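Researcher: Please generate the 3D structure of the following complex. Treat every line as part of one assembly.
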Amino acid sequence: MLELVLLLTLGLFVCQLLLLVYLYTTKTWAIKKDNTANRLYHELFPDYLSYLTGDTDIEPILPKNDELKQKVLERILSGFTNIMTDSAGKARIQQSAEAHLATIYRKKLKSSNWSKRMNALYLIEDFMMLSLREDVKEHLHAITIIDEEYRQTLRILASFQEESLLEYMFSRPNMSIGLIKEILRRLPLSFLTDIMVVLKKDEDDVPYAIRQAFIDYCGESGYYEFLPFIEYMLTHQSKETRIKALKSLHQYQYCSNPTIIVPFFTSEHWEERLHAAKLTGMMKLTEFSDYLILLAGDRVWWVRFQACEALKKMTDGEILLAYLSEQHEDMYAKDMAKQTLTMRAGGQV
Amino acid sequence: MTGEEWVSLIVNITAVSVILYMGLVGLTYLILFLIAGPRIKKERFLNQQDYVEEMVFNKDTFPVSVLVPAYNEEVGVSTTVRSMLGLSYPQFEIIVIDDGSKDNTSGKVIEQFKMKEINLALRRYFDTKQVTKAYQSTLYPNLFLLRKDNGGKADALNAGINFSRYPYFAAVDGDCILDSDALLKIMKPIIDSNGLVTATGGTVRIANGSTITKSQVEKIVLPKGPIELMQIIEYFRAFLIGRLGLSRMNILLIISGAFGVFEKNRVVKVGGYNAKTVGEDMELIVRMHRSIKEEKSKQRIEYIQDPVCWTEAPDSAAVLRSQRKRWQRGLAETLWLHKKMLFNPKYKGIGLFSMPYYLLVELLSAVFELIGYFVILFGLIFSFVLVDVAIVMFLMTVLYGSLLSSLAVLLEEWTYHKYPDTKSLLVLFFWALTESFWYRPLMVWWRCSGLIQTFTKKADWGNMKRKGISSDS
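Model: Done. Output below.
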């Protein structure tokens, strides 16, 4: 028994020793590689600056080693991607990436290492490497787990304005509203118009999440073309859709005919009352102040809060709130009016 | 059999039981390592910046109320608030809750951030001690301060929830500093899962030794003191092996009070923090799990290995002792409060694995180890125990700790590799090997005292005297 334990101890001790050697070696190696990459980055940066800003047409010579080349070039190009605004500069970034990284990323997409695939996917989008479109499409079909890899692959295809994407989305009823919105943000107006046409024609052909995401996104994008559609959605039979439409109007900070929000002031659903109050404040619809005064004494705290916030936004808001804080028959409304008067707007609810 | 033989037999049986128990505990940890390791390995090379980049500009990133309960934190509270103000996150508010401090905690916040008193129309999800005053910063409209009568950390957090406006809240200790992208990273699973993840916990790391300037961690350096060094290794092990392993099976029972994010609706539904226990962070999570299981909901509670919250660890044995006693009491109280869940198949993994794990491994291992030490010591002195058995026990104790600690160092290197030199690795490794000879026996003794204290003491804040971790505090 003792021999066995001693043997086990020795084995585990060796394990620990090996672990230490492994850690020490990999760390030393990683530090060395980082230092080399760092040095090369600082050497190449000024030349790349001239090349990417168009001062020269000669692209600097990169190291031959693939790993080093990738490391240095990614760092340089990523830095510029965030600050480069002109299309010529962007085109050069894309060109450099296509020339030196496309083959590397094509290989990385097939890698068994998740992080490496992910990093490649992020940069394919950042550098807009259109030559990898088919590889990315193939990659999407190979993905079996719905995780960040799946989401990033879809984001890339949306950035590439891949036409088959709409059909793909329509056939996936389980996609989340958040992900659909991320895709919509990358799509051009023509794609969005196509979605609206289908929604108008027969909304049952469109998954629920796409409808909700689309309504939401219309306001976020501020495309005026979709405003009549959003206003029409205020009459939808689904409460959630009506609320989404109201939220979308918040983002527009506009609606063509304010009377359409009147029914919501007395809605049986508190969320609708809340959003109606919020919209009234955003649009400074003083003609609806009486409704807001009424809602300042609402049974739901959030509605009271929003009604007073909305009143504060009116030209005579502070006077109204001061009046409410003294005269409102409802104690809660008085308290809320007092709080709103003393509190600065610090983010929206 | 003579009386002496009887004693010897009993001691030897006890010794073998302790050996078996220690072996089982070691095996449990090893299994947790095997579960946690692949996740860490998977994300080892991930570019973390790209991973959360989308969220910074995304209008669907849920707004978060950051709650900072503080009691006598005048030294560190401004640093903490500054680190919060520097968070990279689209929409958030910070609510500092001064729980009747006897020092100048409120004064510091009011002065540093130019606070102005506001009137309150508080919602009352929970009853708390009286909130006496509320302030809003004139410099940062999303920064608030609540002053309330002393009621303990749980009560302060409940008051913060009452005041908060957003659907998610982060609870952050008043002595902690967050990395600027910590909130983005900790919220990512919630956003990606479309709300299916109801709470997430982040990693807490020890700031002692590192350079923190203007509430940002600038250079990560190991501290010099052995007590602080051992806590660093201990935190790696607890977070990277224990919590990640349990989280992957959705049976994690602790989200550190230092940094966690919660869905407000779920917390309100379960009744908020329990002001009658010192382990309010764990107790809340157990109740949340309980309600999730009772509702047959698919919601999950996750631990994220990366979001980093920096805290100041005790640098003296006396302060560490009181901290560990308190933790042990918190654990014991929570397990006692929810004893119905223990071994109860209705609660699936929580009842059948997680609760027994916390009872038998986290709570009672100290008792078993203490018995082990006594058996070795007195057994050998009075020749009640076989020398072979004593050696086996000793080796088990040494191996059990040092191997797992070394593995934790490996995971740290895979996850953060933030120590910039190889020397730090060697230092950590060396101290990991020494753990069993001095640190573990100390812990065992303090944890056993903590268990005894469970029956004698009232809930309190259990704060330690802070030195402050940022150079500009």
